[in-house]
Amino acid sequence: MSGAFTERWYRLFLRAFPPDHRAEYGAEILGTLLNDTPRRHPWPRETAGLLTAGLTARARATAGPWWADGVQLGLSMLALANLAYGIADHASPGWLAISALLAVALLRGWTLAVLPLALAVAFSTGRAMLVGPEATAWSSQFLGPAYHNWVSLAPYGVLAIGAIALAAGRPRDLRVRPLWWLVIPAAALALVHLFGIREYGETWQLVRAGTESILLLAGVLATAVARTPRWALAAAIYVLPGAITPLTDPPSSTQIFGYWLILTGLLLAMAATAWRPQPVPTARHPQ
Q1: Are 17 and 53 in contact (CB under 8 A)?
Q2: Fewest beta carbons less than 10 Å away: which of 72, 77, 142, 270?
Q3: First vs last Cα of the chain: how many Å apart?
Q4: In angstroms, rounded to a whole number, what is the distance separating the alpha carbons of residues 150 and 43?
Q5: Are 103 and 72 in contact (CB under 8 A)?
Q6: What secondary structure does DSSP assign to 188-200, as a single string?
Q7: Where would I find the beta strands (DSSP E) of the chain?
Q8: CA distance 148 to 141
Q9: What residue segments make up the domains of the chain, in order of their start?
């Protein structure tokens, strides 16, 4: 290994920091790590410290009001889930395009584009309840599934209400989130079309539950670091519309009940962590 490799290694893990932080302190951090002399091997302890410090800085970084950041993140998760389910259902290319545009617009913070797309998605899925059963037979490449009960429409209603709130609040500087979040619908595409896994079968449900649990657990850890309710709000936007389903339609198995119990427990842990008061250091008087 050369000193150049060590520098590239540390630069790679510097990307854990927010871009603004890297621009201001990146050279200083890198110089401290290299200690002005080239090293042949990166130190695992320093690598772990760099990654931890970077993720902590990201958790504490702010972009606009906390409520807007939480709403944006929660709606992004709903939009990504909607796109993943559209892929699993072999939806029309037009519906998949609208769903993908909505997910990208939310991730990138394009508020004015989010509103019409979210309203279009909500109307398409709720047309049978809003217009009548005959709307189910409407033929269009840009229409998605038509649901016949309000419980199934809850996530799409939350999408529309959240988009209206973002547009009405006009928050500035919404966070621009990376497009690697699209790995979630990409995984759905791989599961269904590349590996031939049955839609909504055991493997699908296992991957879904694992992904959601990891993201919610990451939210709990980020909340513990930053002590802000934005992740709890995002989790509530994502979890609660689906959690009402077992209340109106009791689950057919203990696995489904346990799944919703775990997600709700992680949400409550996140909320409790966000509003837990931080200890106030006491002044120490000289003897």
Answers
A1: yes
A2: 142
A3: 54
A4: 55
A5: no
A6: HHIIIIIS-PPTT
A7: none
A8: 20
A9: 3-60, 66-274
